[in-house]
Structure formats: structure tokens, C-alpha cells
Amino acid sequence: VNLFNNKSVSYQPTDKLSKVSKLLRSSRHLDGRDFVYFVNSAMFLDQLCAIDILENIVDCSFDGVPCNIQVNTSDSFRTKFVKEIKTMKHGRCVTVNTRGEPLLKTRKSGTKDGLRLVIQMDPNEEMDLFSPLSGLKVIVHDSVRFPHLENADIIALPGEYVSVAAEKEVLKRLGPPYGQCQKNFIDDYGYDYSDSYCLDKCYNLQIKDTCDCIAESVGNKTEEFINDLGICRYDNTVQRKCIDNIRKSGELCNCLPSCEEISFTTSSFKVEINHEFLVLKNFISERLLLERMSRQSNLNLRSAYDRKPLNISNTLMIHLYLKTQYYESVEETPIVTDFDFVSGLGGIAGLFLGMSFVSGMEILEFIFDSFCQCCKRLRTKRTAD
Which residues does UniProt call coiled coil (predicted)? Predict the structure, then answer.
């Protein structure tokens, strides 16, 4: 099968087709989702076949400034602000503004600013046999947390303009003794704690320890586990039954919600790209670039506009921006604090002691008055006698 970048993989399809048809017949679902669950990309195939999104970016800007001009040093935008994440389910993914890298910061909000990407995707370069969707998945997440790609509900397709507005939310929960939450810490893979990632990792580690194989991605160290165990195979009856038993057992993982969590709610809309405008914009950008380069020699400027020939039908546009400069903060507070409890207890105790003292004095006064009355009656009786 001829792939791209002058790389190829050879195989003998004759003996494989019978195995594939047998696997599909053994699937218990019409859409084959239990079969697709076991279809994971191998690491060497990711390096050989996976599409490098960054190499397919035709145009990139942040707050109206070309991405590479954001870099004041000789480092490129790719090496300074972008990090690659390898996953067995989604192939090679890239994330911008992640931990360990410099952060692009903005004080602007609205549709005029934000991150804009023009990406060219050739359908002939995609290997999407076991995926019902084509295009790119987009998710907005906290920069210090591992992106939970299963929750990505924004899909960008070639020929579409996708606009994504993000709103920041901060949630602070109470820990012991008022509530149950997990204080933040950095795990073995360099990410902050999150309950969704904890559940994912716990489930996959159960499969690893019980079934002696790797079902899905476990952080960025998946390759180390694969070298020792290997990927779970659907045609392996023992491994398949083992994973089914783990699913059915429903063994709980001790994954508490994070005490402090930053999340983003997104709203998006899609429209068809105006091809004529895109061609005109690309033409004007090229002309302006030539004029600026004729006046000054700027290597960053050259690399920022190192464009490929634009194929409009395979081009998609993504625009991510902050909807507002403000964010919503929800913080849990105890109804009764320790100070309130002690002060309330002291007030009640003082009231009780005060009432007890007054009551005691009244009782003593009553006893004294009764004693005086008795003495007075005895004296009156003796006088009468």
C-alpha cells in the first residue's frame, strides 16, 4: 500500500482477508464497535503513516499575528509552543499551550482574535477504515491536564469553517473534613490529577495487570508497556474474554474529584468555506509577504509563510477564541466553620452556665426565705404560748 512522504508498507492481503471476515462475523454488534475497540495503531505505524498536522498547516495566526512571529528567538513555533501526544486510539495528536512549554497569553476576547488555523488534508493520506468519522477532533482543555480525547465533541471536516468559543470555569471543592476530593499533584506522566484521567488509567491498568496486554493508551509511556506486553488482540479469545469480564465486573476505582478544577465550556458553529475568499486571501498574503521580504530579511517571517500549494477542496479552517475575558468561579464553603462551631458552643455554654447560676441563686433565695418564714412562725408560736 503506497502511503505518503515516499514511504510504503508491504503486506500479503490474501491470508488476512479471511481473518478479518472471521473477526467481523464474531462481532456482537452491527456497527462492530466491540471489534473497533481492539483496533489500535502501533507505534511504528504512527511514526510511518500518521499525518503530521503541523506539516499540513497552511496558515496560522494568534491574535492576528503569524504564529512564527510570536517567537522572538531562533526556535520555531512548533518546538516552543506545541507538544505531540501519542495515543493508541487517535494516533498522533498535537496540543498548544501545554505544561513544560511557554504559554501564549492573550488579554483579548471575541471573534476578531484567538488562534486561527488553515489546515490542508488530503483524503488519500488518511487511513480511516475503522473510524466512522473523517477530519480532525478539537478539544479545549486545561493546559496542565491530559486531554480526554473521548470527550471531544467538535469535529472539523475538510471544506468547513469551524468557529469555537470557549468560556473558562473554575471549580473549587472542599476537602476533608467537609467533603471528599483529591488534592492536586503531578502524576508519573507529568500531568495534574483529574478524575476522568484517573478512571481511564485505572481501568487500563486493571486490564494490564489481569489480561497481560495493553488495551488503550496509558499516558505517554504506552510504548514502554507495549514492548513488554503487547497490544490486546480481538482474535485472542482469552484476552477478549478477560477484558469483557473486567467490564462486567464494574470494579470501582478510588478516583475522587479534584479539589480545584479548571474546565472550558465550548460552543461552536460550522459553515462552508467561501473558496473564492480563501483564494483571494492567500493571494494577498503572498503579495504582502513578498513586499515585506523585499524590505527586510526576516527568517521567522519566511518560515511563517512557508506555504504549500493550496487545495481548496481539502482545506479546513479552525478558529478558537475566548468568548469573554471574565470567567465563572464556583467555590464550596462550609456552612459551619470550626470557629463558628467553637463560638456557638461557647455561647451556648455561657448561656447555660449563666442560666444555671441565676437558677441556683434563686433556689438559694427560696430556701433562705423558706427558712426565715419557718423561724418567724416558730417565734410567733412561742410568744403566744
Answer: none
Distances (CA, A) of 39 to 17, 130, 152, 287, 355: 15, 7, 19, 47, 77
d(CA 76, CA 32): 43
325-330 long-range contacts (CB < 8 A, ≥24 apart) are: 325/107, 325/108, 325/109, 327/167, 327/168, 327/169, 327/170, 328/167, 328/168, 328/169, 328/170, 329/169, 329/170, 329/171, 329/172, 330/169, 330/170, 330/171, 330/172
- pTM for the full predicted model: 0.68
Give the span between the Cα atoms of 216 and 219, in whole angstroms: 9
What lies within 8 Å, CB to CB, of 92 at 6+ separation is 46, 50, 51, 52, 53, 84, 85, 86
**C-alpha distances in angstroms, 371 versus 62, 362, 367, 382, 383?**
96, 14, 6, 17, 19
Provide the β-strand partners of residue 263. Answer: 169
